């Protein structure tokens, strides 16, 4: 992904909506096929409720300094959640099978002082949720991501999710099912697989999150203020390349 034109940077919380729309338009025009890893995703036709997000921390309106695009590995997430009603769309199997999915687009800040829970009266509507369910297969998570992160980046949820979709759609994602069978798998091998699939990212621009058992939970892509791939901070990067890793295939 080539990124945005020089000089087009994300605004602080006081200057939010318009630049996100420009960013999304620029990203949508970039070459490269998207591999959503949502196999036969079917959005339910019946009406559904969107839970109101509950803040999990204080409101903070710091200016973003860089960004994280967090991609969750759905088989690991669903490993212990198949029977939970709240995770039925993603994990129940009736709406399709998911691989890497978009957890969210997060504004970051200096010294861990990232913006979050910025004041907004706008909420995610069923229409917005339906539009994004095959990318982020949880209406509750979609609502949470807007309220916690998107509210600090855009005036309206439509603009926030348009930018997130632009970044997501610019990626080509690796076959982690196949990679899981590789002997001696490491965090570095996971980074290299993403870099091989999406050459705009070198391994130092790719974060990995493993759980306590060493199983892959997330891949975190690092961007600067202009939404160009950039070297991850230590917090974004996660375990060193040589750390052993495992990938659950859902079997």
Key structural traits:
251 residues; alpha+beta; Ribonuclease Rh, Chain A; four-stranded antiparallel sheet; two-stranded antiparallel ribbon; 28% helix; globular; disordered N terminus
Helices, by number, come to 9
Q: How far apart are the first and last residues' alpha carbons, in Å?
A: 33 Å
Helix content: 25-40%
Helix-strand string: HEEHHEEHHHHHEEH
The CATH architecture classification is Alpha-Beta Complex
Relative strand content: 5-15%
Q: In brief, what are we looking at here?
A:
The protein is α+β, with helices and mostly antiparallel strands and 251 residues long. The protein has one domain: Alpha-Beta Complex (Ribonuclease Rh, Chain A). Helix content is 28%, strand content 14%.
SSE layout and pairings?
Elements: H1 17-28, E1 38-39, E2 66-73, H2 74-78, H3 88-91, E3 97-98, E4 100-108, H4 126-132, H5 139-148, H6 157-169, H7 176-179, H8 187-197, E5 206-210, E6 216-223, H9 234-237
Antiparallel strand pairs: 1-3, 2-4, 2-6, 5-6
Helix pairs in contact: 1-6
Can you put this structure into words, describing what you see?
- The chain is α+β, with helices and mostly antiparallel strands and 251 residues long.
- The protein has one domain (17-237): Ribonuclease Rh, Chain A, CATH 3.90.730.10.
- It has 9 helices and 6 strands; from the N terminus they run αββααββαααααββα.
């Amino acid at each position: 992904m080539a990124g945005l034109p020089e000089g087009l940077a994300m605004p602080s919380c006081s200057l939010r909506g318009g630049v996100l729309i420009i960013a999304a338009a620029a990203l949508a025009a970039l070459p490269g096929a998207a591999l959503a890893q949502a196999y036969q995703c079917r959005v339910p036709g019946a009406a559904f409720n969107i839970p109101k997000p509950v803040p999990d921390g204080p409101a903070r309106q710091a200016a973003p300094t860089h960004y994280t695009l967090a991609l969750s590995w759905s088989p690991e997430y669903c490993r212990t959640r198949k029977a939970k009603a709240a995770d039925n769309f993603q994990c129940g199997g009736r709406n399709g099978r998911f691989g890497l999915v978009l957890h969210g687009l997060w504004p970051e800040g200096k010294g861990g002082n990232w913006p979050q829970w910025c004041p907004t009266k706008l909420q995610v509507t069923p229409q917005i949720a339906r539009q994004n369910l095959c990318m982020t297969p949880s209406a509750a998570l979609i609502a949470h991501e807007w309220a916690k992160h998107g509210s600090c980046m855009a005036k309206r949820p439509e603009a926030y999710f348009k930018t997130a979709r632009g970044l997501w759609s610019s990626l080509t994602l690796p076959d982690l099912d196949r990679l899981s069978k590789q002997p001696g798998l490491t965090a570095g091998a996971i980074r290299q697989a993403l870099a091989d699939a999406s050459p705009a990212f070198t391994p130092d621009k790719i974060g990995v999150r493993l759980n306590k058992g060493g199983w892959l939970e997330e891949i975190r892509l690092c961007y600067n203020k202009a939404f160009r791939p950039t070297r991850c901070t230590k917090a974004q990067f996660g375990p060193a390349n040589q750390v052993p890793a495992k990938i659950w295939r859902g079997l």
